Amino acid sequence: MEKYVLITGASSGIGKTTAIKLAQNGFRVFAGVRKEEDKIAVENENPNITGVFIDVTSQESIRNAFDEVKKVTDNLYALINNAGIAYAGAVECIPLESIQKQFDINVFGAIRVAQQFMPMLCSAKIVNISSMASFGLFPFISPYCASKRALDIFFNALMLECKNPELKVVSIKPGVIKTKIWEKSIDVNKRVMEGLPEKSVEKYRREFEYLVKNAEKNKDKGLEPEKVADLILKVLCLRNPKPSYTVGRDARAAEIFSKLPLCVTNFFTKYILKKRMD
Ligand SMILES: NC(=O)c1ccc[n+]([C@@H]2O[C@H](COP(=O)([O-])OP(=O)(O)OC[C@H]3O[C@@H](n4cnc5c(N)ncnc54)[C@H](OP(=O)(O)O)[C@@H]3O)[C@@H](O)[C@H]2O)c1
Q: Among residues 177, 71, 69, 83, which one has the least CA distance to residue 124?
């Protein structure tokens, strides 16, 4: 029997790499993209891949994607909620609009897709590409951390609430991965900063400069997206996968660190941030 998988955000990075990996391993992949050229590019990678247009912030686009998939199958073997973006900033001055956009893509987007495709997910695996940020230790990227934690909470609840024990939800929490997300986040957050009052920019100038330097470093120093794709393939092949996996030593360290009392993690987080900025 064919195993159909839908993955959002498959134009680049983890999503595209996973689409290719799954297609090479016999899965029939619906790869969510937003542009015609990305659809052509991802379909050219493997005949098992079909590009479908999905903007996770648009209910209409998700409904259209559902209709496209339904022409081929009534059953998905897996849904991979991967589409995402990263907003950064100090809570004191980040525009609420940016936090809303962050949640609209990373949280509500995944919920919209899951709700629409639920009739096809009776005994499926839902794999969410969360992040080590879900452990919530990172200042100045709290919109992103909060979005990933919220994603994990909503989907864990979905699994507990679901009457079908066959439906499995898995949260994958990668550390730093070498993808375009870092460059994109620099662009997005520079634009947000340009809109801030001069007083706010001045107050956090050093922290903002550190964030940009850190993102520039991460775009080259992270693990290859194949590491995440390999784990997703493994998870899809397991009968009873764990509800949560980390990828990379940084993510594992973040998980361990998050189990310490909050006053201890806060002390060390402040200390490490200060040291890195000096
Ligand atoms: N890279 C890391 O270090 C890292 C670490 C932990 C977790 N993650 C998570 O991994 C996931 C994939 O990110 P990536 O690192 O592979 O970055 P990426 O290469 O930038 O991929 C992000 C994907 O999300 C898509 N996307 C963005 N907004 C969308 C929307 N409104 N509707 C549908 N698709 C949308 C992008 O499509 P367009 O090309 O059309 O914009 C792109 O395909 C994200 O959820 C991210 O939070 C990444």
A: 69
Nearest CA to ligand 1 atom 4: 177
68 in any annotated domain: yes
The residues carrying an active-site annotation are 144, 148
* Ligand 1 contact, 234 CB (< 6 A): no
Q: Is 127 close to ligand 1, i.e. is its CB under 6 Å away? A: no
Q: Is the pTM for the entire model greater than 0.85?
A: yes
Average the pLDDT over 210-239 and give the result: 94
pLDDT at 137: 85
- Residue 194 Cα to ligand 1 midpoint, Å, equals 23
pLDDT at 219: 87
CATH of the domain at 147: 3.40.50.720
Which pLDDT does position 194 carry in this prediction? 86
Please report whether residue 192 resides in a domain. Answer: no
Q: Is pLDDT of 1 > 90?
A: no
Domains contained in the chain, number: 1
In-domain check, residue 156: yes
Q: Is the dihedral of CA 256, 261, 262, 266 positive or negative?
A: negative
Closest atom, ligand 1, to C-alpha of 144:
47
Its sign, for the CA torsion 224, 42, 81, 149, is positive
The domain in which residue 254 lies consists of 4-86+98-177+224-277
Question: To the nearest 5 percent, what fractions of the chain are helix, strand and coil?
Answer: 55, 15, 30
The atom number, within ligand 1, closest to the CA of 11 reads: 43
